[in-house]
Write a structure and sequence with these properties.
The complex is a heterodimer of chains A (232) and B (480). With 232 residues, chain A is mostly helical. Chain A is built from seven helices and no strands. By secondary structure, chain B is α+β, with helices and mostly antiparallel strands. In chain B, 46% of the residues lie in helices and 19% in strands. Chain B contains 13 helices and 14 strands. In chain B, a hairpin with a 7-residue loop joins strand 4 and strand 5. In chain B, helix 9 runs parallel beside helix 10. The radius of gyration of chain B is 27 Å and the shape is elongated. Chains A and B meet through helix 1, helix 4, helix 5 and helix 6 of A and helix 6 and strand 11 of B.
């Protein structure tokens, strides 16, 4: 990275990355804890995830404010501008991920009311762990400015989709087999969908990193996509 | 570099782990004893094996703890010498030699996020946290909010704290993080020490015990129920019926064998899992291992009327880093699976290719097939040797692919012939491949067959000459 003549400018740019990374850490923990709440049927954990979401919202607003201030005062150009914009976009994505995690945690409270469905929660756990790993990898790539690692996350998006499709069918089978499980299964279906969307946000972040580092944004259209509704 | 003003705080003892382990063991013992009483002496052997497994895991955990204790003693020794002033020690080398990740953090203002920097990381820390530089922003190394909180408490509150840190990734590791205040540096910055202690193995043993009991008791119940049913019949109205007795004993024999196969597989799976983070170091001749496996399975293939076609470089050409027995087990399980699902008259192609990149290993080998990577190695510049087994069996629908390596998962509506599998074969393959830092991919097209590809990292001296070691049409051995 080029040195800036004004050191405060450099500090501010680093600050943005640091804030985003910290927000990333909180988001990762929220997703991991929401998942654990579902799998271990842990009401307390679910409540704590819901309570912590506000902090993410505050952080995101804070990052946005700092960005706007920075764009107004420093008028960053070229890669500095890309860094600034990327941080703002990533913060937005992370805030959405936080909301999805909160949603998962809220559903836990209903899911706990029904009898445990071990094979299903196990599938959810497997998919969830994959998504958590994905999110972690992409944030690692962001803090390390590692394009290659970001792209490896980007190109493997369909693994999460495959898990989602498989889980979708499993849930349908369960609901058909025993209508008493429909309430809990319907909520699990949303949990799975939320996880899948968190995976999509991870892919988005990978695209933002690609843009930040290379300045090329054409990549977004090139992603290999598996569609749940239209399969061979 | 600021020097720590006091000896490194070494972590408290961990005696507490052993107790839950022993208790779970006892609970399991109780359950298994009940099973024996309910069924009869035939099962004694199976249950004894289950106990042996418990003992093996316990012993290995203890050994790991002893090793950790020895290392700590060595470090403490170093400190004594330093304190005595007998010699001036290079602190950096001492810290770099420590097996646990250690990090010194400095900060000026509590509000200034960019101000929290790591100013020293030892070698273990750089490898675990994947950082290249000696110093940098703390959040670029660790983002975990719990860890950041205990760091803040140590920096600005002068408090000692602990947190749990999970490294994530395919080879996930779990650390207990200890934060200790180190006072202020000469420039007024606050300092704190962060020590990460690896607790992956301990947690793994605990989790495995719970899983083993849940899975095994469920899977053992089916053959067991059938055995006790037949015992009851033989003692009841079938007493004295010679024909029935022979037939029932035959069925009981099959069920007992199934149980013993299941226990064998469970035991080898747990052994592999325990060593999953210990990287194997032997050089293994993959081509030779494969040809041995094919030779061993040839009679079985002949009986079934299935042709085995091997396209592999000759022995000695492909050397991978691995554990020979486990490499053989991978080849054996994959070929065995293909045999189980192949109809009579079909052929199974077995390919061994060397010097491939990770992408080339998962390249399509079957047309119009659904593809899925079941295990992708963590990023590395390595070259791999890929073993593909291509069968012409019934194949599987796309939706089953992600779950194939799950324990006891069976594709609905498919039977692996009269010799029923245990549902653990692919789980074993996946864990072995993970231990070898390799990968596993599957392709399948319903009605046309399936391809399983396991790829191992090539041994290093071979890796450079890898490209020449690739398969050419001249060195293909045909076997059918």
């Amino acid at each position: 990275m080029n040195e800036h003549i004004v050191k405060a400018y450099e500090d501010e740019l680093n600050m943005l990355t640091a804030e985003c990374a910290r927000m990333g850490g909180l988001t990762e923990a929220a997703v991991a804890d929401a998942l654990e709440a579902v799998v271990r049927r842990d009401q307390q954990m679910a409540d704590s995830v819901v309570a912590r979401d506000e902090r993410l919202d505050v952080l995101q607003a804070d990052i946005e404010r700092k960005e706007i201030r920075m764009i107004a005062l420093r008028q960053p150009l070229a890669n500095d501008l890309r860094r600034t914009v990327a941080a703002m976009k990533i913060a937005n994505n992370l805030e959405r991920v936080g909301d999805l995690a909160k949603n998962i945690a809220k559903r836990t409270i209903v899911i706990i009311d029904s009898d445990p469905m071990v094979p299903l929660t196990r599938s959810i756990e497997r998919m969830g762990r994959l998504v958590v790993t994905r999110l972690k990898e992409v944030l690692d790539a962001y803090t390390a400015s590692d394009l290659e690692r970001a792209m490896s996350v980007w190109s493997r998006d369909d693994e999460v989709d495959e898990h989602y499709n498989s889980l979708f069918r499993e849930l349908l089978t369960y609901m058909m087999g025993d209508p008493r499980t429909i309430t809990a299964c319907a909520h699990l279906l949303f949990v799975a969908k939320n996880l899948e969307r968190i995976g999509d946000h991870a892919t988005n972040i990978a695209e933002i990193i690609h843009y930040e580092i290379t300045g090329d944004e054409a990549i977004a259209t090139a992603r290999p996509k598996t569609d749940a509704l239209q399969r061979p | 570099m600021p020097q720590p003003s006091q000896p490194l705080p070494l972590r408290p003892r961990r005696g507490f782990v052993a107790q839950p382990v022993v208790l779970t063991g006892l609970a399991g013992a109780g359950a298994l004893v009940a099973l024996v009483l309910a069924s009869g002496a035939h099962l004694l052997l199976a249950v004894a094996l289950a106990f042996a497994l418990g003992a093996v895991t316990l012993i290995q955990a203890r050994r790991a703890r002893q090793e950790a204790g020895r290392l700590r003693a060595e470090v403490a020794q170093t400190h004594v010498e330093v304190a005595a002033g007998a010699l001036t020690l290079p602190y950096t080398s001492v810290l770099n030699a420590l097996p646990d990740p250690v990090m010194v953090i400095s900060a000026h203002e509590p509000d200034d996020l960019t101000g929290r920097r790591f100013v020293m990381v030892n070698r273990a820390g750089r490898s675990v946290l994947k950082i290249q530089r000696e110093a940098g922003l703390l959040v670029t190394a660790i983002r975990d909010p719990d860890v950041l909180e205990v760091v803040d408490e140590a920096l600005f509150g002068g408090l000692e704290g602990e947190a749990v840190y999970e490294s994530g990734g395919v080879q996930e590791r779990i650390f207990r993080v200890y934060a200790r205040p180190l006072g202020s540096a000469s420039d007024g910055a606050q300092l704190a020490l962060l020590v990460l202690h690896d607790e992956t193995d301990i947690r793994r043993v605990e989790r495995m015990r719970a899983d083993f009991l849940a899975n095994a008791s469920h899977e053992l119940r089916t053959p067991l129920a059938s055995l006790s049913g037949f015992i009851e019949t033989l003692r009841g109205h079938a007493r004295g019926d010679e024909g029935a007795r022979d037939r029932f004993l035959g069925i009981m024999h099959v069920q007992a064998e199934r149980m013993s196969r299941l226990i064998d597989d469970l035991m080898s799976l747990s052994r592999i899992e325990l060593n999953e983070h210990v990287r194997p170091l032997q050089d293994v001749d993959l081509a030779a291992a494969l040809l041995d496996v094919v030779d061993a399975l040839a009679p079985l293939a002949r009986d079934k009327g299935v042709a085995l076609e091997v396209e592999a470089p000759p022995r000695g050409e492909v050397t991978v880093t691995g554990d020979r027995d486990q490499v053989i087990q991978v080849a054996q399980n994959l070929v065995d699976n293909a045999l189980k699902y192949s109809p009579s008259g079909a052929r199974i192609r077995i390919l061994l290719e060397s010097g491939l990149s990770a992408e080339a290993c998962v390249a399509p080998r079957m047309e119009q097939a659904a593809r899925m990577s079941l295990l992708t190695p963590d990023h590395g510049p390595e070259r791999f040797a890929a073993l593909s087994v291509i069968d012409a069996g019934p194949g599987m629908d796309r939706e089953h692919l992600p779950r194939l390596t799950e324990r006891f998962y069976r594709v609905e509506g498919q039977k692996s012939g009269e010799k029923l599998g245990t549902g653990l074969g692919l789980a074993i393959v996946k864990h072995i491949m993970n231990r070898h830092r390799g990968g596993l991919a599957v392709e399948s097209r319903p009605g046309h067959g399936a391809v399983f590809t396991a790829y191992f990292p090539l041994a290093h001296r071979r890796a450079t000459a890898g490209d020449e070691a690739g398969t050419s049409s001249d060195d293909v051995i045909k076997l059918s």
